[in-house]
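FW: tagging you since you asked about this chain on Friday. Here's the raw sequence from the shared folder, copied in full. Didn't touch anything.
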Amino acid sequence: MSPDGRSLPGRTVMRQRWRGLFFAHWEIDPVAASAALPPELTLDLHEGRAHVGLVGFRMEAVRPAFLPALPWLSWFSELNVRLYVRDRSGAPGVWFLSLDCDRQPAVSIARRFFGLPYFNADMAWSDDAAGRTLTCRRRGRDGVARYAWRPDGPAAEAVTGSLTHHLCERYAFYSIRDGRLMRGRVAHGPYRVARAAFEHEDACAPMRWDGLSGFDRHLAPAFVHCCEGVDVRAGALEDVHA
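HL: got it, structure written out here
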């Protein structure tokens, strides 16, 4: 992988677009966050602080690299909860606590082939001149999370070394598949992010669904960014210990 993380070490196996993203972040107790990680991973702290991220967006034109996108199946909403980590070699990435999705086939494929904790959810997305909204109800869980956001300033690439860069510019995820730690890499151009005007109703519901304590329904994120989107290429899963 190149130093900036934006190129794949192997062939592209999937293509997709991530559109209309918001990145909401809270500080989290490092002890509580570490308890949610497998032993092969450690928290990637910024100036001694740990963060949990909530990212909502639309997945568009998701397909294998050698096939066209399919109507309905290749377009869906997603809301994920993630921690920032490094493996034993020091390689950075994210560890997902959950990924809510409103396409059951996508949930099944991601769980089976990528070892990712996807969940079936009822979700609603809207996108107009006033901004974007996303509603999520995870099936089998109580409560509904609602989000509304729009840019509140100019968009720009995050400055290397800044907290925004640390949280947003991630080009790998880790998962457990068949009992082994795996790494998945993605490649895309740098995000152009803006501070976001953000409204919510129970923004922390996904964290409570994931078993994290201290995230009551009135707790607002420390800061929120948004991005119009990026085109993404994904590589095949790698066995971290191979």
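FW: Residues 104-114 form the longest helix (11 residues).
HL: agreed, and The CA atoms of residues 147 and 168 lie 19 Å apart.
FW: great, closing this out.
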